[in-house]
Every structure is written in structure tokens, then in C-alpha cells.
TrEMBL record:
GO terms for cellular component: DNA polymerase III complex. Keywords: DNA replication, DNA-directed DNA polymerase, Nucleotidyltransferase, Transferase. SUPFAM superfamilies: P-loop containing nucleoside triphosphate hydrolases, post-AAA+ oligomerization domain-like. Belongs to the DNA polymerase HolA subunit family. Residues 4-118 form the DNA polymerase III delta N-terminal domain. Residues 199-314 form the DNA polymerase III delta subunit-like C-terminal domain. InterPro entries: DNA_pol3_clamp-load_cplx_C, DNA_pol3_delta-like_C, DNA_pol3_delta_N, DNA_polIII_delta, P-loop_NTPase. Its EC number is 2.7.7.7. GO terms for molecular function: DNA binding; DNA-directed DNA polymerase activity. This is DNA polymerase III subunit delta. GO terms for biological process: DNA-templated DNA replication. It comes from the Bacteria.
Length: 319
């Protein structure tokens, strides 16, 4: 049969992926007789291996699930690694880890050599993430119109883990039939999730004040970022731009050398932003950041969100 390793940063996404995989492997079989699941902090890895090595009874195969496997240390692994190298042909073994646990490289390498690794973490690029969201919608048995999908993508922001819950709600409300419209899904969407910081800084650099203020609000409320965290993002953004003042950078490599940025694309963006601002506006941006930082730390008796809104509005007007 097959070995699987399901990984990801979010426990809910990992659990959904494992549930879908188990359903696929069981098919029309009797789940109660085919599936053994091990979870929590009490089970030992050897019992997972023993279950996988046990021939099926009154079924054609067994499906064995071991969760939170990153908690096992090197002393626990020999039996599992031996099994992965020579699995029973009547067992499907699913190992899963979702969260901050560090997976043993030995497990990853062993599954890679003998089976399949399923990564549940969504792509970071906006275009790839939209494709991933469409795939999740399809896997949930739903059909959603393009305009409604675009709204869902925007609502999720950088919190794709919320997708599983809203798709479950939509499926419960509408079932599997019919294509859902924007009006259908809107009542089920609560506060919008946070957004990637580069969307926020791109809006400021493009002079899109209204959009930048909207994204600021989503970062604070949906993304639960403290204003000082957002200030750190802005400091990093404008510090890279400031390092290009007088550097006469003409290529991505020049910009990388001047800023210390390790990748060509963000170095190129910093160079483009410096050309938009010029030296005087770059200096003014640093001054605005310094004053706002002092205001956030109590120099003025102002609400922190108001300080950030004024800062973002002023930064977006610089040219």
C-alpha cells in the first residue's frame, strides 16, 4: 500500500487534509474496522508501527493514522524507520504534524523515499494562493462564482486557516448543489483577516492612500498586529530605501549590495521605490517614522491607531 506524511503550520488544515485522505483511502469500506487512529501525548510510536504491521481482519486493508509525530525523539524512531523501509502491502500509514513542532528529518526522508509528502501550508504568492483556495473549494464539494471567490480570497488575507471553517458553514447551509454567488456567501463572512505586509507597503508606495488605510485597519484588527509591529515593517521598508540614497544603484545586484537584501526581487522593488521618492522624500519618510514611533511610545496623548493612520496617510503622499 502507501505511506503518507501530512505537514503544515496550521493544525486545522492538517486535520482536514488527513480526514480527506482517510476518506479517500477507506472509500466504501467499513471505517470502524479499517481505521486505527493515534493522537495526543500518551501513545507510543511503537503501537503505530504494530498496528501498521498487523494484517487486516475481514477487510482488504488497514488505514493507520499517527498524529503529532514531531514529539518523538531519535530513540523512538528505529522501529518506524524500519517499517517505512519495508511497509506491509495491506496497510496505508498516515503520519501527521500540524503546528510548531519540528519534524525529524529522518522521518521526512524515509517517507519521501517510500511514499508521499502532503504539505498543507498555502502558497505565499497571491496568484498561487488563489488557485489553492479554488482547489479547497472544489475539495469541499462546493461551486462558487468567480466574483464570490475573489471576495473570499480578499477576505481571508493572510489567514487561510479560516477557509476550512467558512467552507464547512457554507456546505452546511447550502449543501452540495448549485453555484454560490457573492450575495450567498457575504452573510457568512465576519471580520476580514489580516493581509501580507508587502500588500500594505505596496499600497503606500503607489500613493493609494485609501487602500493603504484599509489594509492598515485589517492588519491591526483582522491580523491582530500591534501598531509597533507595523512600525517595524515600515522601518524595514524605508531603511532599505534610505540605504540607496547616494548609492547610484542601477541594477538589482547594485541594490542588493547597497541594502544587504539577499533576493533580487525585493532589492529591485526598493530601487524602484527610491526612484519614486528621491532623496528629499526618503529623508522626510524617515523623519515621519521617527516622530510616529515617539508618539506611539507616549510622546503625545493620541490613540495608537490614529497615530498610524496619520503616518500612513502622510507616507502615501510623498513623491
Amino acid at each position: 500500500m502507501a505511506n503518507y506524511l501530512v505537514t503544515g503550520d496550521d493544525e486545522s488544515l492538517v486535520r482536514t487534509a488527513v480526514a480527506n485522505l482517510v476518506n479517500e483511502l477507506v472509500g466504501d469500506g467499513d471505517r470502524s474496522m479499517m481505521v486505527d487512529e493515534f493522537d495526543g501525548d500518551d501513545y507510543e510510536l511503537r503501537v503505530v508501527v504494530d498496528s501498521a504491521q498487523t494484517p487486516p481482519f475481514l477487510t482488504d486493508k488497514r488505514v493507520v493514522v499517527g498524529r503529532s509525530v514531531s514529539r518523538f525523539n531519535a530513540d523512538d524512531l528505529p522501529a518506524l524507520l524500519a517499517y517505512l523501509a519495508n511497509p506491509l502491502d495491506t496497510s496505508d500509514l498516515i503520519l501527521a504534524e500540524g503546528g510548531d513542532g519540528r519534524m525529524s528529518k529522518k522521518i521526512t526522508d524515509a517517507v519521501k523515499a517510500s511514499g508521499t509528502i502532503i504539505a498543507t501550508a498555502p502558497p505565499k504568492k497571491a496568484g498561487d494562493r488563489q488557485t489553492w483556495i479554488r482547489e479547497q473549494i472544489s475539495d469541499a464539494g462546493l461551486q462558487i462564482e468567480p466574483q464570490a471567490v475573489a471576495r473570499l480570497v480578499d477576505w481571508l488575507g493572510e489567514e487561510p486557516a479560516r477557509l476550512d471553517g467558512v467552507l464547512g458553514t457554507l456546505r452546511g447551509a447550502f449543501g452540495d448543489g448549485g453555484k454560490l454567488s457573492l450575495d450567498d456567501i457575504e452573510p457568512f463572512l465576519g471580520e476580514a483577516g489580516g493581509v501580507p505586509p508587502w500588500d500594505f507597503t505596496d499600497a503606500i508606495s503607489s500613493g493609494q492612500t485609501a487602500k493603504a488605510l484599509l489594509l492598515l485597519g485589517r492588519m491591526i484588527h483582522g491580523g491582530k498586529r500591534h501598531p509597533l509591529q507595523i512600525m517595524s515593517t515600515l522601518h524595514s521598508h524605508y531603511s532599505s530605501i534610505a540605504k540607496l540614497d547616494g548609492a547610484n544603484a542601477r541594477t538589482e545586484q547594485d541594490a542588493m549590495a547597497a541594502t544587504g537584501i539577499k533576493s533580487p526581487f525585493p532589492a529591485k522593488k526598493a530601487m524602484q521605490n527610491y526612484r519614486k521618492l528621491g532623496g528629499a522624500s526618503t529623508k522626510r519618510a524617515i523623519e515621519l517614522l521617527a516622530q510616529a514611533d515617539l508618539d506611539l511610545r507616549g510622546a503625545k496623548d493620541l490613540d495608537a491607531e490614529l497615530v498610524m493612520e496619520v503616518l500612513v496617510a502622510r507616507l502615501s503622499k510623498l513623491r
